[in-house]
Give the backbone structure.
Amino acid sequence: MHTTRWMATLVGVGAFALALPVCAAEALAVRDARVLATVPGQGVAAAYMTIESPVAARVVAVEADVSASVQFHTMSMDGEVMRMRRVDGLELPAGREVRLAPGGVHLMLTGLSQPLRPGGAVDIHLTVRAADGESRIVRVTLPVVDGRQGHGAGHD
Ligand SMILES: [Cu+2]
């Protein structure tokens, strides 16, 4: 009689509720993602992108297949010397663009296992933790672009 329909409604509601956090994390918008090409012998590469999360979240870890580790760096001038400092993660305020860009916060791929050539691409995985504790892994494909800004110079 009515029982079957009632059950179906319950299942529907349950599935919708479960899907919500997933949808929120999947709506993470990543734009202008790219990694700078390297020259032979260069073990690090800088990567940039613009990230926007609809909910307050934090990028707690980043991994790439082509590098031993991926770190967030900040950049600042110390007199005439550009200094980079590793930071632990990246805050994503709800609904606000966070720009990783030359001269500011950026991603650093360290311990590269291969040179990065213009025209290629690199996959990275962002572990994004929402304020409610829900974690998601978001894959981003970074095209390798020619970068002559000499970013690697600030690194060993
Ligand atoms: Cu750096």
